[in-house]
């Protein structure tokens, strides 16, 4: 069985045509992309690396990593999102290999293939996130880098990521996130360690209501990113 929720795929497929509109429901992704790109590049030096972006959607991060000189493969299970991603390559001139497959399926076929694996804003949308973490470990080369980003599970995260972002500020469509699927850093760390991906860095991402800007810092209480390195 594919590790995917049909309702989640349908939700994002319905919005796929708006992936590259920086004023659309995907505005937050466009705004955080420079931050997460520079963080990834600082830790993994993307130029010349073979990179896999899991849950690539319309390709915002995948294209940006290709722009840094990486050889990027992007995978997703949404035909519509992948269609938009491929069309955007005609505008940008970037080179990304987009494929419709799951992380688990690709791990069976291409284990130990990639220098860098990214899985950003995706784990909180699948039925079994630990299975995706295990697939990431299988896909990356020994000594390679795996990056995750997701949302913490606590009352503050519910207030900010669901009530605030979806209902008050309307930064995201209502129903984008389900609180029960949020993931504590301790759980993500445990899953990662169990498959040979000891965490190397944990960092938070915060939104300032006054400046309306995102920043990386020590506060991991809502959004956070984790860098792991595959045990050789």
UniProtKB/TrEMBL annotation:
<dbReference type="GO" id="GO:0102208">
    <property type="term" value="F:2-polyprenyl-6-hydroxyphenol methylase activity"/>
</dbReference>
<keyword id="KW-0831">Ubiquinone biosynthesis</keyword>
<protein>
    <recommendedName>
        <fullName>Ubiquinone biosynthesis O-methyltransferase</fullName>
        <ecNumber>2.1.1.222</ecNumber>
        <ecNumber>2.1.1.64</ecNumber>
    </recommendedName>
</protein>
<comment type="pathway">
    <text>Cofactor biosynthesis; ubiquinone biosynthesis.</text>
</comment>
<dbReference type="InterPro" id="IPR029063">
    <property type="entry name" value="SAM-dependent_MTases_sf"/>
</dbReference>
<feature type="binding site">
    <location>
        <position position="120"/>
    </location>
    <ligand>
        <name>S-adenosyl-L-methionine</name>
    </ligand>
</feature>
<feature type="binding site">
    <location>
        <position position="76"/>
    </location>
    <ligand>
        <name>S-adenosyl-L-methionine</name>
    </ligand>
</feature>
<feature type="binding site">
    <location>
        <position position="36"/>
    </location>
    <ligand>
        <name>S-adenosyl-L-methionine</name>
    </ligand>
</feature>
<comment type="similarity">
    <text>Belongs to the methyltransferase superfamily. UbiG/COQ3 family.</text>
</comment>
<dbReference type="Pfam" id="PF13489">
    <property type="entry name" value="Methyltransf_23"/>
</dbReference>
<feature type="binding site">
    <location>
        <position position="55"/>
    </location>
    <ligand>
        <name>S-adenosyl-L-methionine</name>
    </ligand>
</feature>
<keyword id="KW-0489">Methyltransferase</keyword>
<dbReference type="InterPro" id="IPR010233">
    <property type="entry name" value="UbiG_MeTrfase"/>
</dbReference>
<comment type="function">
    <text>O-methyltransferase that catalyzes the 2 O-methylation steps in the ubiquinone biosynthetic pathway.</text>
</comment>
<dbReference type="GO" id="GO:0032259">
    <property type="term" value="P:methylation"/>
</dbReference>
<keyword id="KW-0949">S-adenosyl-L-methionine</keyword>
<dbReference type="GO" id="GO:0061542">
    <property type="term" value="F:3-demethylubiquinol 3-O-methyltransferase activity"/>
</dbReference>
<keyword id="KW-0808">Transferase</keyword>
